[in-house]
Amino acid sequence: MSSEVVPPSTLLPDVSSSPRALRSYLHGLPGVDAVGLEARAAALGTRSIKTTAKAYAIDLAISMIDLTTLEGADTAGKVRALCAKGVRPDPADRSVPPVAAICVYGDMVAVAKEAVAAAGGTDVHVAAVATAFPSGRAARSVKLADTAEAVAAGADEIDMVIDRGAFLSGRYLDVFEEIQAVKAACTREDGSRAHLKVIFENGELSTYDNIRRCSWLAMLAGADFIKTSTGKVGVNATPANTLVMLEAVRDFRRATGVQIGVKPAGGIRTAKDAVKYLVMVNETLGDDWLSPEWFRFGASSLLNDLLMQRQKLSTGRYSGPDYVTVD
């Protein structure tokens, strides 16, 4: 298992202005035992839960979904349909909880806000990807304008992508300052603020050590959530790379008293997968994080399988293929 990192809060350095201090701090974090980490993630994935607990876990997973459409062919009609589904996942069963959020490109935020309100989704947020998603390759001024426009359109949450090139070349302070600048752009004129999720793109960070360093960098810079991936590369969320991030937020709260959310995204498609992640959250962080406020799934197809499995638990049989909509 990877070692714990629990520095006393009084010893957390001021890394906000010194590249050397930030580099020294991040590279001073204990290295991740990759073999132990992967073994623990695999072991947690074998845990079985009782039928009553499974029913609870399925509804909890539904309530944690950021229901997502991020395609170049997205239309207003598709976004409206997705919002209606997010607010009422199963129109025939009012006991099914709504999802946590609808996640769209910034230019679809106004459409999503209107559609969620029309469907009565008072508790369903609208999240927007920003900062030149998914590549992150744009001037900072463009990224900040991208963020500000989405917030002005009503986005409740912003999912930004870090500059992986800057991080991998050791320009940690550039990444740190960009996260801080994007967070500032999330603030509205009335002082309210969209929550900021920071996407690492774990598949491009290459090592567990880099994922741990990126987790601490983002949290020190003020992220509200840390997120595994965009869903647009070959390797997205995995149990092992998510476990690194779960351990990081655990240790960060012990060090600072500040709780940070975690969002695995990309490749989580089945109820079985979702339950494995919930077990991992419970075993690593405890039930403090078992709510949509602190844990999310970034997904598009996961909801359908959760609905199918929920129907199976209640009726004893699987529904036909037309029971859920095809997004």
TrEMBL record:
Keywords: Lyase, Schiff base. It comes from the Bacteria. Pathway: Carbohydrate degradation; 2-deoxy-D-ribose 1-phosphate degradation; D-glyceraldehyde 3-phosphate and acetaldehyde from 2-deoxy-alpha-D-ribose 1-phosphate: step 2/2. One of its GO terms (biological process) is deoxyribonucleotide catabolic process. The keyword Lyase applies. Belongs to the DeoC/FbaB aldolase family. DeoC type 2 subfamily. This is Deoxyribose-phosphate aldolase. It comes from Actinacidiphila yanglinensis. The lineage of its organism: Bacteria, Bacillati, Actinomycetota, Actinomycetes, Kitasatosporales.
